[in-house]
């Protein structure tokens, strides 16, 4: 398998429509750490886990509507109650049939301590899960949470058989048994993961492919090379600088789409010079975010005016803002800094912490340069992922945190819930996600309303108001929304295109793909 | 020759080898303890962490014990054959290693073979004809060979041979004998060339030394054929110093195979260790160092035993 | 006056014999020097002769505390040798080594080498060191102008003379020369040995000379000890021993020495085999017995020790047949 | 008289160095007859080994035979091809070296090394070769040869190792054995054994030997004829008895005086003052002139030719003290190329121009 | 007092003349071998470039020009630009400083620690030797790059730690070499003679053993620098060494592999620089080996 081309037509197709059969080798940019659903929280692992695990709901492509999956319908009966009607006759990989018990046990597994699920918070507002009958599950909330409706479409609530959960517990991470279109065949850690067709998949026709191999190819150049040479049927995570190369290869189709991710610079709003709002504004003027966007992501991303990309509720444009989104103006920056009393040379010195990937590191270096031009000396400190994680979540004393940090934040839902609530709420200081140290009572208040209101129009209003205040107070510099990308060999068809991606959700893209004649 | 003395010597060497391996683990363990960031946080990285979760993890991994207790517990596990559990990968270390050692072993083995094939005959030739044009060409070639870091030659090989010419697989380790060979041949060749350049230099130096030896004169004076003089009498003796350090090279090869694996995207031990080091995934790093140390110690013992075959003056366990 | 008095000196080396036997506590002893006595008076020249490996060097080195003897008493100038500090002892007793090629540090000019010794032992005030160096070099026949040269600029014979100058620089009362000329040409040997004899006489030094060259031994020494396997087998006045050797080994040694005169026709007494490794020696009996043409059954068990030959206290022999 | 086995004529071997040529062997001639033992004595560095190596063609870079011929049974060794030389070496002409242990390959058993020689020069099959090895080792007084053949060189004492080397040298029954100080590294009692052994073998097998040593005693006891070498020149050549009895060259005379003997009771050592000349800058005249008590004006300017001395045939000395005696056949590269060979032989005097100098 | 100062100035003068003589001797040694000469000239060139980097570099090494990123070589940018539009030539020129810093650190650590340990072990032999050597055996049993990786992650990924780590891992080899030299030199007659003159051990070690152990130290030190350059570059390439935006060659190569398919120049030129520097030290080391260990008065052979 693998062989010369990313796929082969092995011909033992199912229903003779010509779409069935064959295999694909997908080049994965990194090693999945495990194959559990409850820990699937990164762009590498989710590609794989979503093939194995199915959740209650999924999104329609490309319009991002929730649609039935393992649940055939759902309903919010009131502010704090959700009811899910399960599909009957769903078979797990182990041959057992799905019932309400399985669904509840699966959610509870995510909530177990030893699961160490980074997604557990999604159930934060849940009071309990209730089995109404064999095929009905009710969720009772402790308080209203408008974003909860998305949770059943995430990997936080994929479904595994209760018998397996009881027997293996978190060891399911190594030997996953789900209801997804493919089941695990072989896992050579660090090398490849092979999955094969789940013949009893609930959607009769699907999947088309007999088998897929996720080959772990960390080196982007090798992935592109393999795509060019037809070794791989598909890949993702292409290094931004080389996307154009992939784009130009004839037998490869590149799919890019704006993501709900934002590359941004975080100011330390509690300690040091950046606790002064004017200094933050000055620094924002000093940085040419458009140029950085252009040179970093080019056409594979879009310039950011705030944390919320276009198409998401609460999105703002320069004209909505008091400071017009801080257009590049170093002179203005200098005079503002003078006014703020920073006149020396350098005016002051600070540290910018960044992890190593291009998407964060390259802007960091550009920012260092821009700030030095207005007299701020920046020491770029490149750290390993673990140190980075340690600092941004672990360091609660803001006087010990760096003045600046480069961050890439991704939303878990197609709504601002997973952006403005965790990032700007003054309740959410580290070890939670408000690493800006940003505090604004008005914002806190608006966020509370945003959370508890279910009406979409209203929520959009609150979100926009929060966003305007935040952007004008500049707790950070918003730089760009990088596209997410996937590429496939042209002989594979059926990829529905991608909806703007967020981490916890990647469609089980393989399910619908087949080899063209 | 396999006397009580030999057995005794081997026991002594093994005993010392065990000490070395122990000391290595101790050193690495201590270093990792010094590293910033608590293992618990590394374990829990990537999400919102409740205090309770933290506590669970800390207890699960004995992280609240003083480090020497942790070390003791870890050592106990190792002695019972349990290599521990990877923090970052959430899998038993033994599984991780079982999945990956073969690739590394194959790369190391193949590059050693290629290095030997490349270096020994050329080294003999260059040493025998030292000062000649051929010697100069080979010597300069060898210096250039060691001067180009393997990551560079690897990346360039991918660029040229895979991307532009499409004659090489671009990544992965391949399956099946042919598939595996086609994937690891070029990486092993690059690695082998690097080691081979070093071996060549030693072989050449060894030849030169041996050719100065008095017994070479005896060979000439007794009218032995040239081929016999060079191969039987000179090369064997010149091989001895090469052999003594070849144990060192095994370790060298293991780490450099990491680089090769990294560049060519093969999931061997090397990449496992690199990622573990980056993630401060102590159990994996420790297991990795243990493996290299064990391989190192064992290969050095083997080398010593082989050495006595080449140089009978060195009697195992004797006073020389 | 007796300068050096060595009594029952023993030097045993422990030979590592592998791990297992080590565990079993089986260490093997190499008896390099196995109980020897000799003494040197002021102005006297004493020579140790014997074949390679018989323990000559070890004997003098351990007598003068360059190595730690296993047993035995050594008195220097009437005092226990342990009473001297290392520095004192070294300035009293100086060694000249065999290997002229390497006797001087190749990275140090010869003048500096001599000056270093003088300064270290505070022989003369710093300001006079230079003059002293010149004088010493002159005495051994090296032009003082050459003192800035490194040793590689000198021939073997010259280096050996410089080494002698350095040994004399610390003004010792005892000079030990361990085969100091064996690598040199006969003509050069003769020059050096003559000079050594002159200087010894002039300074009234005690001299211990170690050699396997019987021709040199005859001329240079007053008394001589013939060593075999770590023991002195015959000891006494040099002429006495050369003309009237009593021990069979001494006889064989003298007989084996080629005589540079083709007209002398003699029946050589050729010993079988070679001197055994000192590790494998039997504890009892005469160590020379296995090679001795005169050996009898008694020799294998007899108590050995130097005894006066025919009551002559100046000629001692270690053989039960004499 | 039988034709000579080895005839060296006007041999010069120089080492090329950055500072000029080291004239290690400079215009020497000698003759070795079948069954004869010729001793070469001289001090360290006088060129003995180089002379011997030149005969065997073992001189290595930067050394080179710059002049002269070496005829073995009428065939000139200096012009032979490598292959031809290889045929001769170890087969017709053998070599015994000074340091036996260093001259044996530590990696192989001694038996193995001796069979290598047999394999190179004989048609014997493997079994026959080993038979021969056992036979040889036994004859050379090595106890239990079957076992010892399987031993490695380091397991032999110096004396035993030298027996092995001799066995190797004699393996193919050579006619000529070149021995470079074969006993100097050994103890006197062992040396006596080896000397006796070699002398015995020589007469048993009718070997011819060229025996280099620096020990006058060894020469006196073993050789028939001898050459005395000084600074690259054989300064005197004759039968052992005559030379010892009445040395005709001042250097020979001085050398015999200085050798310390245990029979000599004189209180001091006899010396030759000064030291040998630097082989890179040999004086223009006689090489011994600087240390010679009898040096004359002519010695400073001219290199003396071989003068025939004594009554004996072939006794020669390179010294002007014997001026007036007939000179011996000069070699093609003799110091006086202008002097016709016939001239010097017939009128026996020194070349005429030298007379003019006076 | 005056006497003393006169002595002092005299010794200073001889000190200086000795330095000059040493330099002259060194040059003679280097000159006598083609490899060494070539290597020395390369190293000299590196030193020159490192010192005069600000004058030689056409641009500020960290000045970015986001309008011309990944530009191919041109008149403006002779070696092209990287993905933030920084001039590669200028960065390579400044990168020389890192290469030489690595060389300096490695040499310093090797000589200060490696040589002392080796000297002490070789001189005192016995138990001291055992202890030191067993300790070093432990270090040697961890492959250098791996040990460096662990050290770096422990103490933080930055330039100094990377260089220190590489320096540390090269210590055992140096110690072993010095020890084996010291072991054999201490048996040399001249050391025995120095002991025989009653000299104290410090004097014997420093004045009599060390100066004679210099050739292998020089040779090994030089070649080790070559390997250290590769190791630091490799470490940087793996992201554990010198970090961008510092213009170190390895870091540049590391960054450039992300866009090698767009333009190979940003990886090709820095690696050529690495290769040249490594080649320089290697040639120098090999040449010195020929002269110091095979030629002239030296016949000791160390590998
Ligand atoms: N340090 C040592 N360890 C073990 N054995 C030793 C040591 N030094 C000397 N010996 C052994 O002691 C014996 C006597 O050695 P020594 O050097 O005293 O002999 P020697 O008579 O001086 O010989 P030579 O004439 O060769 O110098 C030899 O067998 C030698 O191998
Ligand atoms: N490879 C060489 N390069 C330069 N000079 C050499 C070389 N080999 C020998 N010589 C010189 O040639 C001269 C003769 O050396 P040779 O070895 O023949 O002397 P020898 O009489 O055998 O001395 P010994 O008794 O020490 O063996 C010596 O001065 C020596 O320095
Ligand atoms: Mg001795
Ligand atoms: Mg010689």
UniProtKB/TrEMBL annotation, chain B:
Q: Where in the cell is it found?
A: Cell membrane
**Segments forming domain ABC transmembrane type-1:** 101-307
Q: Does the keyword Repressor apply?
A: no
Its name, as the record gives it, is: ABC transporter permease
Q: What is the originating organism of this protein?
A: Haloplanus aerogenes
Coiled-coil annotated residue ranges, if any: none
Q: Which residues cross the membrane?
A: 14-35, 101-124, 136-161, 181-200, 236-264, 284-307
Major localization listed first in the record, in broad terms: membrane
Q: Which GO terms describe its biological process?
A: transmembrane transport
Keywords, in A-Z order: Cell membrane, Membrane, Transmembrane, Transmembrane helix, Transport
Q: How does it sit in the membrane?
A: Multi-pass membrane protein
Gene Ontology cellular-component annotations: plasma membrane
Q: Which family does it belong to?
A: Belongs to the binding-protein-dependent transport system permease family.
From TrEMBL, chain C:
Q: Which SUPFAM superfamilies match?
A: P-loop containing nucleoside triphosphate hydrolases
GO MF, one term, reads: ATP hydrolysis activity
Taking every annotated instance into account, which residue ranges of this chain make up the domain ABC transporter? 4-254
Pfam families referenced in this protein's UniProt entry, alphabetically: ABC_tran (PF00005), oligo_HPY (PF08352)
A Gene Ontology biological process term:
transmembrane transport
Keyword list (alphabetical) reads: ATP-binding, Nucleotide-binding, Transport
InterPro entries, per the entry: AAA+_ATPase, ABC_transp_ATP-bind, ABC_transporter-like_ATP-bd, ABC_transporter-like_CS, Oligopep_ABC_C, P-loop_NTPase
Q: Where are the transmembrane segments?
A: none
Q: Which NCBIfam families match?
A: oligo_HPY
Q: Per the similarity annotation, which family is this?
A: Belongs to the ABC transporter superfamily.
User: Sorted alphabetically, which PANTHER family does this protein's record hold?
Assistant: D,D-DIPEPTIDE TRANSPORT ATP-BINDING PROTEIN DDPF-RELATED, TRANSPORT ATP-BINDING PROTEIN
Protein's recorded name: ABC transporter ATP-binding protein
UniProtKB/TrEMBL annotation, chain D:
Query: What SMART domains does this protein's entry cite?
Result: AAA
What one GO molecular function would you report for this record?
A: ATP binding
Q: Identify the Pfam families for this entry.
A: ABC_tran, oligo_HPY
Q: How does it sit in the membrane?
A: Peripheral membrane protein
Tell me, in one coarse class, where this protein mainly resides. membrane
Domain spans labelled ABC transporter: 6-256
- Its domain of life reads Archaea
Q: Name one GO biological process term.
A: peptide transport
Q: Which GO terms describe its cellular component?
A: plasma membrane
Where does it localize? Answer: Cell membrane
What's in the keyword line of the UniProt record? ATP-binding, Cell inner membrane, Cell membrane, Membrane, Nucleotide-binding, Translocase, Transport
- InterPro entries associated with the record: AAA+_ATPase, ABC_Ni/Peptide_Import, ABC_transporter-like_ATP-bd, ABC_transporter-like_CS, Oligopep_ABC_C, P-loop_NTPase
Region entry Disordered, spans = 321-358
Q: What is this protein called?
A: ABC transporter ATP-binding protein
Native species? Haloplanus aerogenes
Automatic annotation (TrEMBL), chain E:
Q: Which GO terms describe its biological process?
A: transmembrane transport
How is this protein annotated for GO cellular component?
plasma membrane
Task: Kindly state which keywords UniProt assigns to this record, in alphabetical order.
Answer: Cell membrane, Membrane, Transmembrane, Transmembrane helix, Transport
Q: Where in the cell is it found?
A: Cell membrane
Query: Which InterPro entries does the protein's record reference?
Result: BP-dependent_transpt_permease (IPR050366), MetI-like (IPR000515), MetI-like_sf (IPR035906), OppC_N (IPR025966)
Q: Does the keyword Transmembrane apply?
A: yes
Segments spanning the bilayer are 35-57, 98-124, 145-171, 213-238, 259-284
The family annotation for this protein states: Belongs to the binding-protein-dependent transport system permease family.
Name of this protein: ABC transporter permease
């Amino acid at each position: 398998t693998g062989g010369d081309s990313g796929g082969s037509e092995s011909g033992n197709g199912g229903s003779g429509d010509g779409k069935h059969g064959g295999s694909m080798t997908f080049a994965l940019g990194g090693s999945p750490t495990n194959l559990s659903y409850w820990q699937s929280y990164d762009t590498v692992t989710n590609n794989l886990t979503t093939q194995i695990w199915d959740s209650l709901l999924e999104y329609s492509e490309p319009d991002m509507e929730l649609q039935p999956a393992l649940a055939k319908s759902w309903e919010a009966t009131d502010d704090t109650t959700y009811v899910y009607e399960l599909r009957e006759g769903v078979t797990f990989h182990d041959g057992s049939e799905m019932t309400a018990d399985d669904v509840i046990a699966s959610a509870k597994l995510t909530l177990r301590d030893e699961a160490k699920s980074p997604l557990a918070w999604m159930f934060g507002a849940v009071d309990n899960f209730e089995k109404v009958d064999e095929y009905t599950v009710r969720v009772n909330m402790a308080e209203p949470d408008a974003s909860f409706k998305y949770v059943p479409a995430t990997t936080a609530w994929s479904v595994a058989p209760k018998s397996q959960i009881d027997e293996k517990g978190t060891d399911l991470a190594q030997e996953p048994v789900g209801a997804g279109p493919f089941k695990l065949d072989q896992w050579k850690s660090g090398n490849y993961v092979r999955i094969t067709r789940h013949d009893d998949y609930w959607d009769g026709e699907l999947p088309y492919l007999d088998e897929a191999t996720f080959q772990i190819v960390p080196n982007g150049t090798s992935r592109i090379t393999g795509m060019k040479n037809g070794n791989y049927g598909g890949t993702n995570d292409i290094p931004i600088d080389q996307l154009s190369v992939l784009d130009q290869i004839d037998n490869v189709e590149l799919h890019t789409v704006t993501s709900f991710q934002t590359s941004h610079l975080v100011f330390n709003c509690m300690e040091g010079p950046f606790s002064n709002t004017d200094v933050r504004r000055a620094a924002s003027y000093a940085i040419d975010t458009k140029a950085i966007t252009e040179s970093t992501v080019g056409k594979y991303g879009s310039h950011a005016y705030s944390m919320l990309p276009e198409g998401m509720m609460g999105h703002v444009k320069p004209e909505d803002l008091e400071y017009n989104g801080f257009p590049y103006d170093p002179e203005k920056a200098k005079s503002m800094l003078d006014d703020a009393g920073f006149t020396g040379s350098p005016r002051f010195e600070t540290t910018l912490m960044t992890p190593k990937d291009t998407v964060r590191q390259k802007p960091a270096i550009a920012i260092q340069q821009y700030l030095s031009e207005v007299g701020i000396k920046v020491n770029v400190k490149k750290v390993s992922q673990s140190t980075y994680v340690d600092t941004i979540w672990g360091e609660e004393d803001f006087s010990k945190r760096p003045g600046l940090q480069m961050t890439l934040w991704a939303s878990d839902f197609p709504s601002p819930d997973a952006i403005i609530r965790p990032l700007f709420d003054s309740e959410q200081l580290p070890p939670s996600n408000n690493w800006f140290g940003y505090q604004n009572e008005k914002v806190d208040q608006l966020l509370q309303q945003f959370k508890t209101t279910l009406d979409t129009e209203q929520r959009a209003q609150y979100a926009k108001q929060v966003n305007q205040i935040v952007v004008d107070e500049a707790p950070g510099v918003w730089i760009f929304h990088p596209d997410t990308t996937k590429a496939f060999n042209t002989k594979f068809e059926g990829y529905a295109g991608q909806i703007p991606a967020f981490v916890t959700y990647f469609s089980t893209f393989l399910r619908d793909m087949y080899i063209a004649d | 020759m396999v006397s009580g003395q030999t057995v005794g010597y081997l026991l002594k060497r093994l005993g010392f080898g065990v000490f070395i391996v122990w000391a290595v683990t101790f050193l690495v363990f201590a270093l990792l303890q010094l590293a910033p960031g608590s293992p618990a946080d590394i374990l829990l990285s990537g999400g919102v962490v409740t205090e309770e979760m933290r506590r669970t993890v800390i207890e699960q991994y004995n992280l609240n014990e003083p480090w020497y207790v942790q070390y003791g517990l870890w050592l106990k596990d190792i002695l019972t054959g349990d290599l521990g559990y990877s923090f970052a990968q959430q899998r038993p270390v033994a599984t991780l290693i079982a999945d990956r050692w073969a690739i590394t072993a194959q790369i190391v083995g193949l590059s050693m073979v290629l290095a030997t094939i490349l270096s020994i005959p050329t080294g003999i030739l260059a040493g025998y004809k030292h000062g000649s044009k051929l010697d100069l060409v080979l010597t300069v070639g060898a210096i250039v060979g060691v001067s180009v870091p393997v990551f560079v030659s690897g990346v360039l090989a991918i660029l040229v041979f895979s991307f532009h010419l499409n004659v090489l697989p671009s990544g992965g380790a391949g399956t099946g004998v042919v598939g595996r060979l086609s994937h690891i041949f070029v990486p092993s060749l690059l690695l082998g060339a690097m080691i081979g350049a070093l071996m060549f230099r030693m072989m050449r130096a060894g030849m030169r030394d041996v050719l100065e030896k008095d017994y070479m004169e005896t060979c000439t004076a007794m009218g032995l054929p040239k081929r016999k003089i060079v191969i039987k009498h000179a090369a064997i003796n010149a091989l001895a110093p090469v052999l003594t350090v070849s144990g060192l090279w095994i370790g060298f090869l293991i780490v450099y195979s990491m680089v090769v694996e990294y560049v060519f995207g093969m999931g061997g031990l090397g990449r496992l260790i690199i990622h573990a080091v980056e993630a401060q995934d102590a159990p994996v790093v420790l297991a990795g160092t243990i493996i290299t140390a064990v391989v190192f110690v064992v290969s050095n013992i083997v080398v010593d035993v082989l050495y006595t075959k080449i140089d009978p003056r060195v009697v195992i366990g004797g006073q020389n | 006056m007796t300068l050096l008095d060595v009594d029952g000196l023993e030097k045993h080396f422990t030979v590592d014999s592998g791990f297992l036997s080590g565990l079993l506590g089986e260490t093997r002893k190499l008896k390099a020097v196995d109980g020897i006595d000799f003494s040197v008076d002021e102005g006297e020249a004493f020579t140790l002769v014997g074949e390679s490996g018989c323990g000559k060097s070890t004997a003098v080195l351990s007598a003068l505390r360059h190595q730690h003897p296993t047993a035995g008493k050594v008195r220097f100038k009437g005092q226990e040798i342990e009473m001297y500090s290392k520095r004192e002892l070294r300035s009293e007793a100086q060694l000249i080594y065999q290997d002229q090629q390497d006797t001087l540090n190749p990275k140090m000019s010869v003048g500096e080498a001599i000056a270093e010794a003088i300064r270290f032992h505070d022989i003369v005030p710093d300001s006079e060191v230079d003059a002293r160096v010149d004088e010493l070099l002159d005495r051994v026949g090296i032009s003082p102008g050459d003192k800035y040269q490194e040793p590689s600029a000198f021939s073997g014979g010259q280096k050996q003379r410089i080494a002698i100058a350095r040994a004399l620089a610390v003004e010792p009362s005892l000079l030990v020369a361990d085969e100091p000329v064996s690598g040199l040409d006969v003509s050069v040997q003769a020059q050096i040995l003559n000079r050594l004899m002159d200087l010894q006489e002039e300074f009234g030094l005690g001299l211990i000379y170690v050699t396997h060259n019987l021709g040199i031994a005859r001329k240079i020494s007053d008394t001589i000890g013939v060593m075999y396997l770590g023991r002195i087998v015959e000891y006494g006045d040099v002429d006495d021993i050369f003309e009237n050797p009593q021990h069979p080994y001494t006889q064989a040694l003298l007989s084996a020495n080629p005589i540079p005169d083709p007209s002398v026709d003699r029946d050589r007494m050729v010993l079988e085999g070679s001197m055994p490794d000192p590790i494998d020696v039997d504890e009892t009996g005469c160590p020379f017995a296995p090679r001795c043409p005169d050996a009898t059954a008694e020799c294998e068990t007899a108590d050995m020790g130097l005894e006066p030959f025919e009551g002559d206290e100046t000629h001692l022999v270690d053989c039960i047949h004499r | 008289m039988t034709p000579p086995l080895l005839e060296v004529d006007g041999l010069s071997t120089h080492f090329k160095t950055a500072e000029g040529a080291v004239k290690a062997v400079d215009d020497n001639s000698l003759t070795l007859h079948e069954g004869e033992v010729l001793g070469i004595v001289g001090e360290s560095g006088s060129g003995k080994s180089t002379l011997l190596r030149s005969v065997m063609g073992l001189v290595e870079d930067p050394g080179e035979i710059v002049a002269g011929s070496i005829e073995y049974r009428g065939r000139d060794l200096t012009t032979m091809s490598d292959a031809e030389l290889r045929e001769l070496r170890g087969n017709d002409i053998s070599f015994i070296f000074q340091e036996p242990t260093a001259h044996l390959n530590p990696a192989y058993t001694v038996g193995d090394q001796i069979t290598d020689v047999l394999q190179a020069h004989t048609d014997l099959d493997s079994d026959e070769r080993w038979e021969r090895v056992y036979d040889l080792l036994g004859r050379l007084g090595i106890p239990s040869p079957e076992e010892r053949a399987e031993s490695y060189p380091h397991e032999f004492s110096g004396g035993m190792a030298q027996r092995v080397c001799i066995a190797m040298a004699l393996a193919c029954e050579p006619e000529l054995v070149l021995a470079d100080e074969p006993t100097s590294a050994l103890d006197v009692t062992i040396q006596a054994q080896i000397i006796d052994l070699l002398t015995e073998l020589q007469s048993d097998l009718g070997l011819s030997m060229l025996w280099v040593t620096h020990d006058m005693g060894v020469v006196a006891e073993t050789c028939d004829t001898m050459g005395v070498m000084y600074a690259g020149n054989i300064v005197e050549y004759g039968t052992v008895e005559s030379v010892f009895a009445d040395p005709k060259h001042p250097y020979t005379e001085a050398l015999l005086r200085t050798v310390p003997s245990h029979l000599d009771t004189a209180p001091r050592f006899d010396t030759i003052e000064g030291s040998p000349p630097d082989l890179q800058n040999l004086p223009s005249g006689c090489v011994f002139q600087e240390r010679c008590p009898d040096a004359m004006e002519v010695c400073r300017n001219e290199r003396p030719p071989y003068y025939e001395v004594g009554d004996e045939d072939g006794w020669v000395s390179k010294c002007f003290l014997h001026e007036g005696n007939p000179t011996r056949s000069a070699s093609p590269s003799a110091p006086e190329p202008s002097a016709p060979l016939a001239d010097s032989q017939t009128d026996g005097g020194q070349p005429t121009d030298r007379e003019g100098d006076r | 007092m005056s006497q003393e100062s006169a002595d002092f100035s005299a010794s200073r003068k001889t000190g200086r003349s000795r330095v000059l003589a040493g330099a002259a001797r060194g040059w003679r040694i280097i000159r006598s071998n083609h490899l060494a000469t070539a290597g020395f000239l390369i190293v000299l060139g590196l030193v020159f470039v490192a010192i005069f980097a600000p004058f030689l570099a056409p641009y500020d090494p960290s000045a970015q020009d986001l309008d011309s990123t990944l530009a191919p070589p041109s008149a403006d940018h002779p070696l092209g630009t990287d993905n933030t539009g920084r001039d590669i030539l200028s960065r390579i020129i400044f990168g020389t400083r890192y290469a030489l810093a690595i060389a300096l650190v490695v040499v310093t650590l090797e000589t200060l620690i490696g040589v002392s340990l080796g000297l002490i072990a070789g001189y005192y032999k016995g138990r001291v030797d055992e202890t030191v050597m067993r300790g070093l055996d432990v270090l040697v049993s961890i492959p250098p790059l791996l040990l460096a990786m662990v050290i770096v992650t422990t103490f933080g990924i930055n330039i100094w730690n990377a260089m220190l780590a590489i320096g540390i891992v090269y210590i055992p080899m140096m110690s072993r070499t010095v020890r084996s030299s010291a072991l054999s030199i201490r048996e040399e007659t001249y050391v025995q003679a120095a002991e025989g003159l009653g000299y104290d051990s410090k004097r014997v070690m420093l004045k009599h053993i060390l100066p004679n152990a210099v050739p292998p130290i020089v040779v090994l030190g030089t070649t080790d620098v070559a390997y250290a350059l590769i190791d630091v570059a490799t470490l940087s390439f793996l992201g554990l060494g010198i970090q961008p935006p510092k213009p170190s060659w390895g870091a540049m190569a590391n960054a450039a592999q992300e866009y090698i398919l767009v333009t190979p120049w940003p990886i090709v030129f820095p690696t050529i620089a690495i290769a040249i520097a490594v080649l320089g030290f290697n040639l120098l080391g090999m040449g010195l080996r020929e002269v110091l260990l095979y030629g002239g008065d030296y016949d000791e052979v160390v590998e």
